[in-house]
Amino acid sequence: MRTAPTILHLDMDAFFAQAEQASKPSLRGKAVVVGGLGPRGVVATASYEARVFGVHSAMPMAQARRLAPNAAYLTPRGGFYRSISEQVMGLLRELSPLVEPLSLDEAFVDLEAGGAAWDSASARLAGERLRADIRGVTGLTGSVGLAASKMLAKIASEQAKPNGLVLIEPGTERALLAPMSVRTLPGIGPATGDHLRRAGITTVEEIVEAGEDELVRLLGKAHGHGVYAMALARDDRPVVAEREAKSVSVEDTYDVDIHDRLRIGMEVQRLADRCVRRLRGAGLSGRTIVLKVRRYDFSTLTRSETLRGPTDDVAVVREAAARLLEGVDTTGGVRLLGVGVSGLADYTQEDLFALVAQAEAEALEGAGVDDGAEGSEGEGDVPPGVRDAEVAERRWHPGHDVRHAEYGPGWVQGSGLGRVTVRFETPWSEPGRVRTFRVDDPDLEVGEPLPLVRPEVEPGAASVGGVCG
Ligand SMILES: [Mg+2]
């Protein structure tokens, strides 16, 4: 393991919510919740002001609304967040060729590999400069953790939040980890955490006290060794520039085709168990459960199901695999079965990509409902004008950008009953006024996000004529 704290972990603070507050002056200092606003929606990010009420990522939106009824509820603007993310990742790549993104707003950087730092002092300097550059380029704050390993760099950035920097001096790691929850360690997901708790082990210190043999007895050989090493702060995992599309899978080919549906079900459960053992052994968890079935005629089907968050829980994988099997016709028999888990994370982290994708899909789903009904007959009880208004209403997603011919740029605060309420403000203006329009107002159109940092006026642009003359 290296001896200098030259692994950097960057995590933007409440990323989507902060981006929305920066875009919308009227929401600064207020509770803001970004996520899917439909009936099955979940919270992607809550601002720090909303977290005070107990709202957090991956919580059902209905629950968030009960906890913080007065918060602003916004649909994610995925393209906008991605463009900020690209700016941030670009700054990280200036520091080192070894940048490992974990999500849109989070990444590891090997500062030593880029020559950007070699000891504590230079690492701290690089981290502070990075934070200033991120602020300057994107207008947003991020927190930085610095340590000699990935595990500790991530713990450090968590401690630094919001808008801070924490450097863990090499040699102090074990004392720091000792009182922390076992869940802090990479490779300990909810299921492993519960398992250890039932054995009376809740803190990292208790893992060390239990000893390696006991850990191996509780978690199996590979997983036990791995967790014990992490508890001793031994983490040699390198920062890898491109995360390989990792997956763990197991499969069995049968000498004789299996016809019995019950037997097929039992085989799938057995494969799920084996797959999870392998997953845990590698200290991983994953979000997508895959079932593979090769039938008697060599036709091969794969079915998959993506969960809200990563899992290493055998019951969850078993259930998902069983659900997937329900949708597969096995009459005629099967000759091969396989169960896999992909979308792997070495941390059971909130998955922003997935949450944004889900929220956007829901927003589109809402918009698409009427497309299918368009031109359909037999809805004579709904006056045509009302239906048009409903279609128009669905264009206006809370939080999304609009432009009005007279009032300029603004964002949708809400819509309903044929009306849309727009707040007219920009990232660089004072909090703006609200105006209400008919949803089909021809002066109102969908707008583009404005940059959070005001584009600079070209210096000397006004005096070009004079200079040249
Ligand atoms: Mg973050």
Automatic annotation (TrEMBL):
The answer on whether this UniProt entry bears the keyword Nucleotidyltransferase reads yes
Q: How is the cofactor bound?
A: Binds 2 magnesium ions per subunit.
Cite the PROSITE patterns for this sequence.
Answer: UMUC
Tell me what reaction this enzyme catalyses: DNA(n) + a 2'-deoxyribonucleoside 5'-triphosphate = DNA(n+1) + diphosphate
Pfam families assigned: HHH_5, IMS, IMS_C
Please give the chief subcellular localization of this protein.
cytoplasm
Q: List localization entries.
A: Cytoplasm
Function according to Swiss-Prot or TrEMBL? Poorly processive, error-prone DNA polymerase involved in untargeted mutagenesis. Copies undamaged DNA at stalled replication forks, which arise in vivo from mismatched or misaligned primer ends. These misaligned primers can be extended by PolIV. Exhibits no 3'-5' exonuclease (proofreading) activity. May be involved in translesional synthesis, in conjunction with the beta clamp from PolIII.
Q: Which family does it belong to?
A: Belongs to the DNA polymerase type-Y family.
What name goes with this protein?
DNA polymerase IV
Q: Which organism is it from?
A: Streptomyces griseosporeus
Which gene does this sequence derive from?
Answer: dinB
